[in-house]
Amino acid sequence: MKLQTLLNESILMFIDSILYSYAQIFFSNRRWLGAIILFVTLLFPTVGLMGLLGVIIANITAAILKFDQSKIKSGFYGFNGILFGVAAGYYYELSFFMLMLIPVFLIITFFISAVLEHYLAVAFNLPGLSLPFIFSLYIFIIFLTNYSNIQVHHLNFPYDNIFASLPIFIKNYFKSLALIVFQPSVFAGILLSIGILIFSRVLFVLSIVSYSLSAILLTLILPVQAEQLAILVGFNAILTAFALGGVLILPSPKSFLLVLISTLIVVIFAGFFHRLLNGTLLPLLVLPFNFIVLFTIYSLKFRKEQSELELLYFAPGSPEENLYYHQNRKNRFDRFKYFFPELPFFGEWFVSQGFDGSYTHKDAWKYAWDFVVVDEKNSQFSNEGNQLTDYYCYKLPVSSPLDGKVVKVASSIPNNEVGDVNLDKNWGNTVIIDHGEGLFSAASHLDSDTIKLKENDYVLKGDVIGLCGNSGRSPYPHIHFQFQLTDKIGDKTYRFPFAHFIEKREDKLIARSFDYPDENSIVQNIVIHKTIKKAFGLRLGDKITLQCSINEKTFTEEWEVKVDIYNMLYIENNNHETAFIYLTDKVFYFSHYLGGKSSALYHFFLLAYQVPLCYHANLEWKDQYSLSQLTGTSIRYLTEFFLSFKNFIKAEGSFKYLERDEKSDSFIIDNKIELKGTGVLKSFKKTMSGQIKINGDGEIESFHFINANNSKFNATLTSNNGD
Description:
Elements: H1 2-24, H2 31-41, H3 45-64, H4 69-74, H5 79-91, H6 96-124, H7 131-144, H8 168-179, H9 186-199, H10 201-221, H11 226-247, H12 253-277, H13 287-300, H14 319-333, E1 349-353, E2 368-372, E3 397-399, E4 404-410, E5 429-434, E6 440-446, E7 458-459, E8 464-467, E9 479-484, E10 498-505, E11 508-515, E12 522-525, H15 530-536, E13 543-550, E14 553-563, E15 569-573, E16 578-583, E17 587-594, H16 600-607, E18 610-612, E19 619-625, H17 636-639, E20 649-657, E21 667-677, E22 685-694, E23 700-706, E24 712-720
Parallel strand pairs: 11-19
Antiparallel strand pairs: 1-2, 1-12, 2-9, 3-8, 4-5, 4-7, 5-6, 6-9, 10-11, 10-12, 13-14, 13-24, 14-15, 15-16, 16-17, 17-18, 19-20, 20-21, 21-22, 22-23, 23-24
């Protein structure tokens, strides 16, 4: 049974490696598109079979030599073999001699591909693209000049006459697409254009724009060669547009502009290589595409500012998925820092003065906070407020926001009477801590002689460093706190966020992450609730079984917590769908999900997208979803024709801890996801919702979700061996 399972897995991987290799030709990771491209190449059977032979030999060679299996499966080593195979079948009649020779050159193509791909990746952080195919085909063509009996193909697709009435401009567009896989057929181009349209609206638009512009520019710049070069320039322009406008660079207005500029350069390079190769047997092929894309990508790596024309920095999907993922990652985690500082106190404090405050937080000192304690009437003191002891915050402990080394201490400055200030000792009693990496924190106006630390002492996050006082330029007890870039008392402030805290504003409790407390709000640190912590404290090797239902259909799903090569935890279900975990000490996050959208893991990913590991009744928080993660958003496919310029739909999740039932020992997290249109789609709105139930033993007991199409999903825990 185990042998049969291994055999089945090997067969599936072999098929995947073939289909993904074909998909790679069009920068895709879709097996179905690979199947379409394979079918298209078989319109001329000899051409298609040589391409199939190419990918099989390349992938088998890689497997025998123990190359990375994940790369073999992804098509990394196979697509250049396909291109060489279809090119050989396109240019030459097959004979016994050729059938013996082509496999040898396919192995040569593999080794050239392995060397170039890895060298360019290591030396320049660049993809090899189709350069290996060009080099091996040129060697092949030059080698065959020694043999006079080699016959050259002249292929014509017999059914293309049904498209004879199409304008030459449109026929050449389809032929340009088809010639990428060496198919001289309008029909092949139509099939490929349909596949591209389904895969990516961005790429479909880019193919039309780049081809149209290349045809116009070719007529203007090289009118004599325009007819001869139309298709060659067309498919080089299309591939270059794909790479620079949506695949290797994320779609944006500037990447679209880059496509327009690069199309002009394609025409110029095509003219140059055409003249350079004139008189030789070597075809132009995709030389312009390779040179322009590699030079452009490499040059962009030397910019001082990388925020515009974003280079792809993760495993590619479609251009739309890549852009959604980037925007989602930026919205969620862009403000996250290497450090996770906490508020420098315990309990609830009021922000009496925030950034660019009304009194002293100005100019270079504007990124600072003043904290006090207030009662339910928003008063800072009891009685008349004439004595320091009347103030609720007086002599309360002040804590270190992070681990670090104490570098400056001022500790013996007397407290002022209420209403008085000490301008000579402006900052009063102060502790400055060096947290490393150039970040310092300063807590000022502390109580006289309550700082027990000395310079070079090491403190941990949450350690008490002194008590709140009224020293220095302080008319009433409070904590002045700031981040800065030096160890100088009273130096310029530095804008740096607190990692996780809870803000109370207008009777609402809101959890915020890597943000800045607002003036006139009440804030507190997140305090871990052991039951919530246990529920989301997933550990390597944990296994969970769930009984699930979608409407009337029931099934069992199994999860296991695993870790990848980057030590990132993820949950994998029995269908190999995965949800990746980003776990901080105070908040649980899912970072991304790979797989179908009907599993329990997918719905749990949506519901537990972000969870503060604390509990407060009616605590709220929000997060942003990627559109590609959600079902019921088919209208987005129409908007993606314009995605290079504007994203018309946004998805936001609103989360809340519900009040606990007195009879129940459970916690409930409520979630509502809203999809909202902007601009011309401002009337568009869809909602989905669900809840997670956590029992008193710290187990995720059950969860349910209602999709935008009213499909109902339910899951109940049946076993958990993680305890």
